Amino acid sequence: MQIKRKLTEREQKLLQILINERNKGIQEIAQLAKTDIHDLKTIIDSAIDELDLSFLNQNKEIDCTLISAYNEKLKNIEHAIDRLAEGNYGSCQKCGQPIPEKRLEALPFALYCVNCQKKKEEKNKEATQRSYPMREEI
Ligand SMILES: [Zn+2]
Known about the structure:
Layout: H1 9-33, H2 37-46, H3 64-86, H4 101-106, H5 114-131
Zinc ion binds next to helix 5.
């Protein structure tokens, strides 16, 4: 991961959140895979988009499904870091307002601010109600 331009203070904080999440994910995989974390870091750094999980199959006790899920999460984190590098991370995809750091800490892949998310959920709810009318409406 290389970011060439100078990051704002907020972007630096967000990057730190993402890197923390990334390290947590790598640790989880290392624990599940019972692999030395340094080996795993090298593997992940060299091929984040096509992490070779074949080394896991040597040990049948390992839950590959769970590891794949963590791997998926790591990929999402990488993409978020790429977006941050391009200046496209951390603002609401709908209204363009910056998403609060607290929210991103809890949900690093949040695409919408709380308001837009709520509106979206309400719309979804309305749509569900419309397709399944209440008894009184029939
Ligand atoms: Zn918004």
